[in-house]
Amino acid sequence: MNYANTELEATFKILKSARILANYAQEQGFEAESHNARPTYDHMGAILADSILQAGMNYRNVVKPRVEAILVSYADKKSVSDLVDLIASEGLEKLLNWSHQTKLSRFEELVTFMMKNQVITASELKERLLDDSFCTSLQRIDGIGPKTVDYMKCLVGIDSIAVDRHIKTFAKEAGLEHHDYDFLRNVFCSAADLLSISRRAFDSWVWNKLSMASSPQQSLF
Fold first, then answer.
1. Which residues, 6 or more positions from 69, have their beta carbon under 8 angstroms from its beta carbon?
2. Cβ atoms within 10 Å, residue 97
3. CB half-sphere exposure, 60, CA atoms < 13 A
4. What are the CB-based long-range contacts (under 8 Å, 24+) for 143-150?
5. Tens-digit pLDDT profile for residues 109-136
6. Predicted TM-score of the model (pTM)
7. I need a surface site. Which of 125, 147, 148, 165 has the fewest CB within 10 A?
């Protein structure tokens, strides 16, 4: 089988799986008009904190209050340069209201990475996240993989899907076999297109539906 045929077969598999997924979403009560995308921020402290804290955490009870506290307490400290000053004056634990060293170290390393790459504002981050080489470099930070990068894209308003456990569970419930990260992201992006909804909004709908099923009090909003 030549390269062109292999590519065609892969594309067909994605589109076929996307149709199965879109049909399943409609069976589950999906309506494009009634769903919003994840919130976006123009505050680098909120973006980086949300991106680092969300992995493995209850969003509503753990992550959301801390992100909102940053937005309120440091409303005018939006840039990475401001973050560097805050870390020096306030300390990481106070800034994030967090004591576990792993996420604190990861956050600080992410801030350092942004400074080193001259990504100071949210608009600059949005522009750089469209560059594959930047995204690859970002994943060299311990604990940051493609899911975190795609999640960060959602937070700055780039239309993307972050393949987390909810996305994987929804795919399995729809009857799709588990595949690699890129395959599932492409399938969910294509399904969103078929449903005439933004990819960020579809990501949010799946996240909320699965979260509410496992914990009725939890929501992105």
1. 97
2. 14
3. 11
4. 143/55, 143/102, 143/106, 144/106, 144/110, 146/181, 146/182, 146/185, 147/55, 147/181, 148/51, 148/52, 148/55, 150/185
5. 999 999 999 999 999 999 999 999 999 9
6. 0.88
7. 165
| Residues 139/179, Cβ–Cβ less than 8 Å | no
Backbone angles phi, psi at 20, to 5 degrees: -60, -45
For residue 165, pLDDT over 70 is answered with yes
Helix (H, G, I), strand (E, B) or coil at 158: coil
32-46 residue pLDDT tens: 666 666 789 999 999
* Half-sphere exposure at residue 204, Cβ-oriented, CA atoms within 13 angstroms: 21
Band of pLDDT at residue 221, cut at 50, 70 and 90 = very low
Q: How far is CA 106 from CA 53, 55, 80, 170, 196, in A?
A: 10, 12, 15, 29, 36
From the list 99, 125, 118, 101, the residue with the least C-alpha distance to 41 is 125
Stretch (H or E) spanning 169: helix 165-173
Size (the chain), residues: 221
